[in-house]
Structures are given as structure tokens and as C-alpha cells.
Known about the structure:
Elements: E1 5-16, E2 19-30, E3 34-38, H1 45-52, E4 62-67, E5 70-71, H2 78-84, E6 87-90, H3 102-106, E7 113-114, E8 117-118, H4 120-133, H5 149-161, E9 167-171, H6 179-194, E10 198-202, H7 206-212, E11 215-220, E12 223-229, H8 235-243, E13 261-271, E14 278-288, E15 292-296, H9 303-310, E16 316-324, E17 327-328, H10 334-339, E18 342-345, H11 349-353, H12 360-365, E19 373-374, E20 377-378, H13 380-393, H14 410-423, E21 428-432, H15 440-455, E22 459-463, H16 467-473, E23 476-481, E24 484-490, H17 496-503
Parallel strand pairs: 3-10, 3-11, 6-9, 9-10, 15-22, 15-23, 18-21, 21-22
Antiparallel strand pairs: 1-2, 1-4, 4-5, 7-8, 11-12, 13-14, 13-16, 16-17, 19-20, 23-24
Helix pairs in contact: 13-14
Amino acid sequence: MDEDIILDFQHITKTFPGVVALNDVSFQVRLGEIHGLCGENGAGKSTLMKILSGVYPHGEYEGKIFYSGIELKLEGSAIHQAGEEGIAIVYQELTLVPGMTVGENIFLGKEPVERGSINWDRVYSDTQKILDEFHLDIHPQDVVKNLGVGKMQMTEIAKALSENAKVLILDEPTSALSEAEVFQLMEILRTLKQHGVTCIYITHKIEEFFLIADSVTVLRDGKVVTTQQAKDLDSQKLVKYMVGREMKERFPKGDRIPGEVIFEVTDLRAEDPNKGREVLKGVSFNLRKGEILGIAGLMGSGRTELVMTLFGEYGKITQGTIKLEGQKVNIKNGNDAMKKGISLVPEDRKRHGLVLSQSILKNISLPNLERFASFLRINTDAELVESLKYAKELAIKTPNLFVTAESLSGGNQQKVVIAKWLMSGPKILIMDDPTRGVDVGAKFEIYKLMNKLAEKGISIIMISSDLQEVLGMSDRVMVMCHGRSNGTLSIADATQERIMALATGIA
């Protein structure tokens, strides 16, 4: 075997009940390269990486993996064994313990013990060294649940880097990162490459492959379509390999004319319920019927805090007014918001959007059970028919609605979250980073759905970290900076430069 080949996947096949996740997958990864792995949701990327990292041990799949020329057989405590072999993975969905500190998470299971007890000073000093080495702006004693998703993601990456990995797998590492954090991650990967670390890089952000990858393997429907040098590819070729067809436009054209103002927020101020500090420091905007209002801003600008507060599930409002259809409203919680016609597709679908152990059917119907209830029982036939309607409308890829939500790919999980809120018949649909961790084909379907909903008169508030998405889908853009609304632009006047000027406080 070529000594430059560190990983050789040979005829890997993995099946689940009713689904062939991987079908005779074969390709090679060279030592010290950054190897891109791409494909639509459900293409098999994450399943393959779970095999490599020991989640699915030897014997639960067909085929062979050779690691530095020797067959890799991860058995027994396979995940631990993978770590000992120098294989580390950062999952798309975070695996941190929310109630623990950054330092506790990074050293979980490998705490330094002296004289029979954990040396906490060393835990935090060693954590600080790792954070400093990679220029990560996180404090070792921060409790993870109090961090934003972006900083949680960087903590997860720091945890993997602390294990001196020979092979580092990154599954959607930038889905919640700001542009500055993405640039920082790219610099970290270039440094690791110089030290001989091999990286397998999974992302739905096509442009990132051309920034960082040496070669790219494309999976479609569990099969390898191609492996090529990144320099021999371009965005159009890559998308065509992924979806099996050309996509000439990234953002579908809508046909809507926004109507009268339906929702008004004036000088809204709110405190963090845990820390008591002010997170919203004066936010004002309005939303029209059938409009898509984009909300832009840097990580930490208060975008998610704003929509969670509007939904009644975050901040303690200290000042300001909220009006719905001209009437002042006081939204106490999410159930109250739903009754008033406001629904929220949250930023973190696994923490706030789904009950992963429950079926797709139960997840879709959960907030809507009252409509199926009569005489102390649920009309399960009506529940199934209505849920099937929304599952079909959103093209959720699943053998049936009785499989668990955790068995779905990230994009299909997101569709389940959207489906349950559409069933509630909202007047206002808030979507916080709705295409995070979603492939290019599924993004296009979500964009078409958003246009369709707006054309029906549903008003949409969309937060996005992707400025091209904001510009491609919005009728207007409200920009936040340090907890304040710093201006609203019509889409005709909005550019990336003007949005960034408002987001950074220059304008």
C-alpha cells in the first residue's frame, strides 16, 4: 500500500431497518491532507464517519478500513479505542455536557489525578493553554450551557484538539460560527496540517472546500460519485455531483407583495434570566403581512436572544412594547406565543426543537395535540393523516413516521421542526438559522417553502449568519449590533458591505 495513504475505505456497506445508508463505499485519504467529504443530507457522510470513529464498531457494517496500512477493527469499547488510535471527531450536533465548565468538558474522562483526587488547577491551566494556542476566545471556567452555539462549537473543537489526534474529523464545524470564527478555524486547520494531522472535513458550505480542502469525495444516496482534487472542481461541478442535476440559481424567486404591518416591536429591552445582565438594549422594528424580514448581525449581537424573548422563552422584558395586529401583547411562554399565532424554528433543533427519542409523528403533532383531542383521547387516525400531509409537503426522507427523530439526517430533522410549526397555522413564523447544517438541495426546498408561505400571507422573521442567504431571501434586513437594532435596509439598498458596517457599529 502507498505509504502516503493513511485511510483506505474498501467496499463499506451499512444498513438500517428499511434504509441502505452506505452502499459499497470505497475511497482513500492521503496522509496530512484536508479531505473534503460532501453530499446531501442522508448521503451517508455522518454514518461513514461514525464507523471510522467507533460509534458503529467492527461487525456492524460490511467492508474494511485500512489505517496506516493495517486493518482497523474497532471492537468492544470502540469509541475509546478510536481515540487511542488517534482518531477524533467533532460532531455536527454538539456532545458537550451543558452543566459542566469548558475545562471539565475538555478533560472529561482524562482528568489529571494527583494523590487520589483531580487537580482542578491543572485542568483549568491546561485548558487555558489549549485555548491560547488556538486563539479561542473562551474562558476555561465558563459553564457550557451559558455559551452561545458558536462558542460551544469552538469548545467542541478544542476538546478534539486536546487529544493530539492523527486524524481529525470535522462534521459541519462552521454551521454556527461567525465569519471571523470561520477564518480562525481555517488557520487552526492549516497549522494542524503543517504538523502532519490529517483532516476529514464535512460541510454544506460549498465555498469552504475551495478555501481549505486538498481533495474532495462526493457521496450521493450512500454511494461514492467521485473523488477529485479540489483544484479541479468548481461550485457548479460540485453541486451537480451532489444532487445529480444542475442548479442554476441558489435562491428561488418569490412572487409576493408584503401588505400592512402585522407586528411591531418598540424599544425592547430584556435581561438574561440567568445572569441578570441586559442582553437586549433597545430593539425596534416592524414586520408586514407576507414579508420575509431578515435579521443580520455578528455572533453575540443578540439575534437569538431577541427571537427567543419574542417567543416568551428567554429574556425578562424590562422595557418596550410588542404589538400584534395593532394590539399590545404580553407573551408569557411558548404556548402563549403559539396561541397568538407566533411559532419559532429554533437555532439548535436538538436542544429546543425536537424530542429525539420520540417518533417523527409525535414530534410533528406534539404542539398541536389539542386539535386531535376529544373526550380525553387523541384521534390517532386524524393525527397520522395530518402529520403525513406536512411530511409529504416538506419531502421528509423517511421510511415512515414511526421511526425516531434521532435516526434522521440533520436536514430532515430540520424539516420535522418546520412541519410541526406549520401545522399550528402561524401568522408569524420565526426561523433562527433555518438552513444550518442543511445541504444545498434541502436549502433550496426550504427557500421555496418560505416563498410559498409568504405568498400565502404568513410573515417570516429569518435570522441567518449567511449574508448571501439574508440578501437572497429577504424583503428587508434589520441589522443588530451589541443588543440593539442598528438600522433596517430595504433589499434594494442592502449590500454585504452596508450590513457589515451596521453590524460592527461603523455605520
